[in-house]
Design a protein that fits this description.
83 residues, alpha+beta, two-stranded antiparallel ribbon
């Protein structure tokens, strides 16, 4: 390959972030890692495109951080107590 050229890769195609409900707003390459800036898409629209009507949430609740134990597992009892 005498005249090989390399372009900056589009990392969003490899990460499949659209399946997580994220849209990439920017990307940069650093030594040893790639950094993606993302934002959350409108969840209602995202669910409408991907889920059957009976699987969609009826309501959305926004909260802070999930309660976790020292091992990092979500404490479901405390989470349901918040509701």
């Amino acid at each position: 390959m005498l005249n090989a050229t390399f372009v900056r890769p589009d990392l969003t195609t490899f990460c499949r972030l659209d399946e997580l409900g994220l849209v990439v707003t920017g990307q940069r390459l650093e030594p040893g890692r790639a950094v993606l800036a993302c934002r959350v898409v409108e969840l209602d629209d995202w669910c409408r495109e991907r889920l059957a009507p009976y699987k969609r949430p009826r309501r959305w609740l926004r909260g802070g951080e999930l309660p976790r134990n020292p091992l990092g597992k979500v404490l479901r009892n405390e989470l349901t107590a918040r509701l």
